[in-house]
TrEMBL record:
<protein>
    <submittedName>
        <fullName>dTDP-4-amino-4,6-dideoxygalactose transaminase</fullName>
    </submittedName>
</protein>
<dbReference type="Pfam" id="PF01041">
    <property type="entry name" value="DegT_DnrJ_EryC1"/>
</dbReference>
<feature type="active site" description="Proton acceptor">
    <location>
        <position position="181"/>
    </location>
</feature>
<feature type="modified residue" description="N6-(pyridoxal phosphate)lysine">
    <location>
        <position position="181"/>
    </location>
</feature>
<keyword id="KW-0663">Pyridoxal phosphate</keyword>
<dbReference type="GO" id="GO:0030170">
    <property type="term" value="F:pyridoxal phosphate binding"/>
</dbReference>
<dbReference type="GO" id="GO:0000271">
    <property type="term" value="P:polysaccharide biosynthetic process"/>
</dbReference>
<comment type="similarity">
    <text>Belongs to the DegT/DnrJ/EryC1 family.</text>
</comment>
<dbReference type="InterPro" id="IPR000653">
    <property type="entry name" value="DegT/StrS_aminotransferase"/>
</dbReference>
<dbReference type="InterPro" id="IPR015424">
    <property type="entry name" value="PyrdxlP-dep_Trfase"/>
</dbReference>
<dbReference type="InterPro" id="IPR015421">
    <property type="entry name" value="PyrdxlP-dep_Trfase_major"/>
</dbReference>
<dbReference type="GO" id="GO:0008483">
    <property type="term" value="F:transaminase activity"/>
</dbReference>
Length: 357
């Protein structure tokens, strides 16, 4: 069976070495040695100033919205994983959708200003499939209207824009370290923020608001990563270069061999260095997509409809129409992409697609 992705498993001996440290320390959570080491390693690897690891990629979005969203209207993208809309509603804010660019698939920055009202407090945009939003235009709009910018950068591990980590853009960026993401801790995530005062507030929010055992800065929740999860992260991180090289080869093979006369893939943002995290293909119609999906499934190949449905159609998200996103969500399929996908498997996937479009 071939799925859309396959979690990377580091050599078990290397994972066990990390676990031995936990047994030696007799310390399982509450920001132990391994979590702090992982954060330091991530700062070096990614080139970011402040990072706090968390228990998944959803809680940092909730914390950011709790602090910056302030129960207001949040301008967001309809084309993302459900978490980027559900967190807005969960935090008692109102999602206001802005349609996406038909080629980059990220929020269409030229349509953002029309959606701003006196109630707007923040923009929550996704660097979907690791493809950067137009961060400069979004920053200019945010500055002009005094809005906060939160990036759901769940797919953006290792992506750089103009040579700088994508996590360094916006007031806050978040990432997911879920098993299906390119860097993972099984379950996990992180929050990045370059403003030290804001970072400190977000940081204490992830640990119940604790200042010390008996004193509290303010409201908080439990977003802590455990030592067991950090152990996985420390064992995976040294393989990121290898993982990225393997993915790059698969992407190059798809690019070369898929028949793009009736098929499209996303356009990468200029001046960015991408991470090969997803391979979306856009079919001409949903009927063609369903036919291709069925044929692939019959061969035990399971691409995923990332992302379907368009998030503006969720029953708790209001009733705005987003024609570009709805059309793309109905026609997009993410193809299997992981380093040890072999040539025979790739040829089979490509053959099925090229003969059914
Ligand atoms: C995976 C993902 C999340 C949620 O991350 P978890 O670690 O699963 O909580 C949020 N946003 C996007 C775009 C994602 O793909």
């Amino acid at each position: 069976m071939i799925n859309v992705t396959k979690a990377f498993f580091p050599p078990i001996e290397e994972y066990q070495l990390q676990l031995q440290r936990i047994w030696k320390n007799q310390w399982l959570t509450n920001r132990g040695e391994l979590v702090r080491e992982l954060e330091d390693d991530l700062k070096g690897y990614l080139g970011v100033k402040h990072v706090v690891c968390m228990n998944n990629g959803t809680i940092p979005l909730q914390i950011a919205l709790k602090v910056l969203g302030n129960r207001g209207e949040i301008i967001t993208t309809p084309f993302s994983y459900v978490a980027s809309t559900s967190v807005i509603v969960w935090e008692n804010c109102t999602p206001v959708f802005v349609d996406i660019h038909p080629e980059y698939l990220t929020i269409d920055e030229t349509k953002i200003e029309d959606a701003i009202t006196p109630k707007t407090t923040a923009i929550l945009a996704t660097h979907v499939f690791g493809n950067p939003c137009h961060v400069e235009a979004i920053e200019a709009i945010a500055n002009k209207h005094q809005l906060k910018v939160i990036y759901d950068a769940a797919h953006s591990f290792g992506v750089t824009y103009k040579g700088n980590s994508l996590f360094n853009y916006g007031d806050v960026s978040t990432c997911s370290f879920h098993a299906t993401k390119i860097f993972h801790t099984g379950e996990g995530g992180a929050l990045f923020c370059n403003n030290k005062a804001l970072f400190d507030q977000l940081y204490f929010s992830h640990n119940f608001g604790h200042k010390s055992a008996t004193e509290f800065y303010g409201l908080g929740i439990n977003g802590k990563l455990s030592e067991l999860q950090a152990a996985m992260g420390l064992a995976v991180l040294p393989y990121m270069k290898q993982i990225s090289e393997g993915r790059k080869k698969v992407v190059a093979y798809y690019n070369k061999n898929l028949d793009f006369s009736n098929l499209k893939t996303m356009k990468l943002r200029e001046n960015s260095d991408w991470n090969y995290s997803y391979y979306p293909v856009l079919f001409e119609t949903e009927e063609v997509l369903l036919k291709v999906q069925k044929t692939l499934n019959e061969s035990q190949i399971f691409p995923r409809r990332y992302f379907y449905p368009s998030l503006n159609t969720l029953n708790y998200a209001g009733k705005q129409k987003m024609p570009v996103s709805e059309s793309i969500a109905a026609r997009v399929l993410c193809l299997p992409l992981f380093p040890d996908l072999n040539l025979d498997e790739l040829k089979k996937i490509i053959d099925i697609i090229n003969t059914n479009i």
